[in-house]
Amino acid sequence: MSGGEVSAISWRRYGTIFIAFLLAMAGVSLWLFPPAREPVASFRTALVKRGDVVATISATGTIEPEAAVDIGAQVAGVIVAFGTDKEGQPVTWGSAVEKGDVLAKIDDSLYVAAVKTAEAQIDQYTGQLARDQATLEKDRVDLARYQTLMAQDSIARQQAEDQLFLVRQDEATVKLDIGLVELAKASLLTAQVNLNYCTIRSPVKGVIIDRRVNIGQTVVSSLNAPSLFLIANDLTRIQAWISVNEADVGSIVRGQPVAFTVDAIPGRLFHGRVGQVRLNATMTQNVVTYTVEVDIDNPDRALLPYLTVNAQFETGRRRDILLVPNAALLWSPHPEQIARDVRPRREDRVSGPAIWIADGRFVRPIPVELGLSNGIVTEIAGPDLREGLAAVIGEQAHGGADQAGRNPFVPQIFRGQPSAQSQPSSGSER
């Protein structure tokens, strides 16, 4: 055998071994890394259940006293002392006071002096009045005597007329004295009232929410009376002032139940009822809100003024009805996922809201009528509905290289039906 023939046989042998090696490697690769397959979609479902639903409107506000009185000062002066509460302590924040209790005292030196000045003026004008009245009586007697003498032609007519003029002058002086006495009495009354204002008393029974002055502080009464104390009449009856958006205020009516929480007392649910909707709307950054007053019983005084309220207005309640998650009303299938006997007539069969029921690899619609919703579940009704139906709320992928042949640390994208959150609302065409 020649050298050329030996060389050709060797190349064929090596080539066969190399091809076999490549085939073996391909087989191992297919075994270790099977080819990717298109994911097979299956439906995620939720059962149609029977239960209760409560529709609410969420809003926030603050706790306010049902009636609060702002106590001011009508005279100017220096605060020299505070009154005492039921326990004999100086009144301060949180003190309980009765109607008529002394809250504070203003230095009354100037007002005592004004009273004494008015009293002195009364004495002065009263004495002057008595003197002028005596003069008037004397001149009247003289006038009568002159008139008698004039009738007897014992004196000239001019003397009688001069005496009459003098009497008229005395009468005017007496009237002036009477006016001065009354003016002095009015000045005394004003001085006594101002003196009484130096003692600031509570006009109501209640609790002091705020004390805005200290001893030694000067209060100046001008066009606006300075505020010294803020008193809440009764903290066992309070209100929540809640700001409600204009889009929701139409659902708020008097007597409507309201449930709310406060951050200061976690885990406790409070209740109240709508008292009234104020008409003076406010606008903040082009958002119009109305203030709703909610009446609340607070017998244990657990709710304090000005706490933040997280309220839920109950706008509707239904019991023992069929409910479905809102995701079932939002989900919409691709046309090829609809059962073939329904697909050609889809527009006629499903013209309104519907839920979709899985039928093997396909889905079928069941038209429904929508009712009350709380944002999570919705009331549904329809002749073909029954409790326990599995309504489709989305899809999930199984099998193929998604689980076996791909790196689990690499994010995977399933190019199937979008999730319920990306679908249009229940009013969209199905």
SS element count, helices? 5
Structural class: alpha+beta
Please trace the helix and strand order, writing H or E for each element. Answer: HEEEEEEHHEEEEEEEEEEHHEEEEE
Q: What's the overall average pLDDT, rounded?
A: 84
Q: What is the total tally of β strands?
A: 21
- Give start-end ranges of low-pLDDT stretches: 36-40, 399-430
What would you give as the CATH superfamily of the domain at 57-66 and 233-318? Answer: Efflux pump adaptor protein, beta barrel domain
CATH architecture of the domain at 57-66 and 233-318: Beta Barrel
Q: What does the largest sheet look like?
A: 6 strands, antiparallel, barrel
Radius of gyration equals: 48 Å
**CATH class annotation of the domain at 57-66 and 233-318:** Mainly Beta
Can you tell me the CATH topology of the domain at 57-66 and 233-318?
Elongation Factor Tu (Ef-tu), domain 3
> What global shape is seen?
elongated
> What fraction of the residues are assigned to beta strands by DSSP?
25-35%
End-to-end gap = 82 Å
Reading side by side through the largest sheet, how are the strands ordered? 2-11-15-13-12-16
Helix amount, in percent? 25-40%
